[in-house]
From TrEMBL:
Keywords annotated in UniProt: Cell membrane, Membrane, Transmembrane, Transmembrane helix, Transport
Every ABC transmembrane type-1 domain range: 82-262
Superkingdom classification of source: Bacteria
Transmembrane regions listed in the UniProt entry: 25-48, 86-109, 116-142, 148-167, 211-232, 244-265
Main location per the UniProt record: membrane
InterPro entries noted in UniProt: MetI-like, MetI-like_sf
Keyword GTP-binding: no
One CC-aspect GO term: plasma membrane
Record keyword Transmembrane helix present: yes
Function, as annotated: Probably part of an ABC transporter complex. Probably responsible for the translocation of the substrate across the membrane.
Membrane topology listed for this record: Multi-pass membrane protein
Location within or outside the cell: Cell membrane
Record-given protein name: ABC transporter permease
Amino acid sequence: MLDRATDTSTKDDTTRRVRFRGAGFVPASSRFAGWIALALVIAIWQVAGSTGLVNPLFLPAPSAIVRAIYQLAMSGALWQHLSASILRIGVGWLLGTTAGVAVGFAIGLSRLARSVGITFISALFPIPKIALLPLLILWLGIGEEPKIATIALGVFFSTAISVYSGVDAVPRNLIRMAQSFNVPFATIVRKVVWPGALPAILAGFRITASVALLLVVSAEMIGAQYGIGAFVLQAGNLMQTDQLLAGVVILSVFGLVVGKVINLLEIKLLHWR
């Protein structure tokens, strides 16, 4: 009996679960650490500006930036500039994303499209899209069309690359397994390829949102009367640094909102992971 009890104890010790210690590999973060760090930086910044340690012409205090945003909102100019930028980003991003997803899947699923598409993408992707704005103005005229086309081009190439990279990353054994059961090609794409490529596609959306924001600001600085980029350029020319940083803060908040929307999409669409 003693030997049996000893064997049982030894077996329990051998099969005891060991707590996972790879905390650095767990995709989780502290809920409030980022906001606390941001609040601390803003507080130090405010103290430095209020005590005169920093020249307000070079770096206005956060209170001055908030006051500039408030005045911009009360005057109605905030919505005028913001609505123009949102319209350009929205239309350009949708056009570029739709075309990029279609081309990316074609490259990932078709040998002919891959051989042709990758060559063109490799040749055209490194070109700064903002450099094409004067040519697009010549082709499309002065108006919203060249700005939207510039954004759409920048979004298209990044989306196409992320989509066909995601399609390539889908495990081939899953596709072969579906083919062994004579599953139709369209069903394989919808049930196997699309879910497998979706994480890379959503990651590409994060990149293209930043690309669209960068391009709209650049395009508005070159040729626009309204828009956050035009407002920032005008404030910089007049050395109104509080107004300039107000525009930068608005852009940052817009980027945070877009990132939050993509997070919600990932939670909804990638719940199976």
